[in-house]
Amino acid sequence: MTWQLGSVLILSVALAVGFAWYERSRPPARVLALVAALAALAAIGRVAFAAFPNVKPTSDIVLFSGYTLGGPAGFAVGALAALVSNVFLGQGPWTPWQMASWGIVGLGGAALGRVMRGRAPSRLLLAAACGLAGFVFGALMDAYQWSLAAEHTLSSYLAVSGTSLAFNIAHAVGNVVFALLLGPAFIRALARYRRRFEVSWRTSAPAVASALAALAAGAALGHVAVAQAASPPADVAPAIARAVHYLRFSQNPDGGFGPARKSSSTTLHTGWTALGLAAAGRNPLDVAQGGHSTIDYVSAHSGALTDVGELERTLLVLRAAGMKPVLNGHNLLARLIARQSRDGSFGTVNHTAFGILALRAGGRATRSKEVRGAARWLLRVQNRDGGFGFSRSAASDVDDTGAALEAIAASGHRGSPVADRAVRYLRAAQRPDGGFAQMSNGDSNAQSSAWAVQGLVAVGRDPRKFRRARDPLAYLASLQAGDGSVRYSRSSTQTPVWVTAQALAALEGKPFPLRPAARRKATAAA
Questions:
Q1: How far apart are CA 239 and CA 235, in angstroms?
Q2: The pTM is what?
Q3: Residue whose C-alpha is closest to residue 171's, from 144, 140, 199
Q4: Cα–Cα distance for residue pair 404/417, rounded to 1 Å
Q5: What is the largest CA-CA distance in the chain?
Q6: H or E segment and range at residue 7
Q7: Which residues of 463-491 are buried (b: 16+ CB within 10 A; e: fewer)?
Q8: Taking CA 107 as the corner, what is the angle to CA 102 and CA 110, rounded to the nearest 5 degrees?
Q9: CB atoms inside a 10 Å sphere around CB 462
Q10: pLDDT category, 13, cuts 50, 70, 90?
Q11: CA–CA dist 305, 299 (Å, integer)
Q12: CB under 8 Å to 121, separation ≥6 — which residues?
């Protein structure tokens, strides 16, 4: 077997593995379309600049694709760009080498994106990365030329590299120029498309009516609607898109979700995941697998909803779906109100906070006796340090303080002294890494950080201004794995589905209760 044939066989296997990896990532149809468009753009860029040896924007486009869309997509864009452009420039034994080389550039872009952890890259950093990509591509193509040589030694490889050095420098310099001109804007545009590639708004009359209903409902929630109107920061958009993808492909065929992928569905984890996806604009009626939506699963288990927490969570899910608080003839709002104590509470601080959110989700106004009674009780049980515990007189913790802030805002007390003291408690509780721990002496985790962020947003505070080594949004993004899931903490290797859902709602900046998510066409993962 010759060196040339052996190298081509090895590259063919590597390319097959790369494309299999991309296929196993189960990209949605719109991701496939975006990858195809980027590959075509990279190919056109190469053909258009064919008159200028080695000066072309192809490497930049491939690197930007990997940075924004992740490793599998970056590899696919690079490999396909080489294959398609050679239809015009000429196929040959060099094609698999070019496919592999640009695929590696895409993987390098994804690695840079992971290092940046959701932060926006500077223009100079992008230019340096693209320049390095030019030399990496050149070194790999030099290896192709070396495989054709009669002698395969280090000195012969260096001789081959010396003859192509001027071309490799031209490639790197061209990459730097293109990156300086287009880099940040290109990545911002890709990030916006990455967030929206699954969106397909209906233009029919029912959709218009649904949108008007959502606007009316948002107006009824007042301050909550204002809090949810702002778009999430652009630098966390890739993290949001990856989390949405992960959650949608964690859904079970019965429409529900379990604590982890491939685990049995539960009402607890289905509710939290539905709320996380709804925060990202996915209506629970549309999120489906195996012909069953999230609402189908919730409805099938409505008769067993007797626990206060389950009732509250389900009412929030129905609100996000734009549905009335009734399932299979069971009035869940009436069930919840029947559980309210004479003092206005629902037993614990946590249940009372979520009770207020659920009452508002079920249609009760801030001036209703149920909401006013629960709010009076909640405002009275604040601890002296400004925080709230799980129950009355319990030690303050971040999770319950964040939930209480959401309830305080939803009950019309957003600007109250109680809210100000709770915000000061959270500021003091922030850990040096930018995240939040449940208790002051613990380590930061995604769940507590998410609750803190949602509480702050609910009362009109910008979580980006709560900064230590980083802000809490950057901390959450730093916990995201390559598949889009979010680890519970830095020291944990587990990525529970419900933690990813809570982190998603926080990154979106959406406190509860959510406004109804607009209906979409075909958002089923299957």
A1: 8
A2: 0.60
A3: 140
A4: 13
A5: 92
A6: helix 3-24
A7: bbebeeebbbbbbbbbbbeebbbbbbbee
A8: 130
A9: 12
A10: low
A11: 10
A12: 67, 112, 129, 183, 184, 187
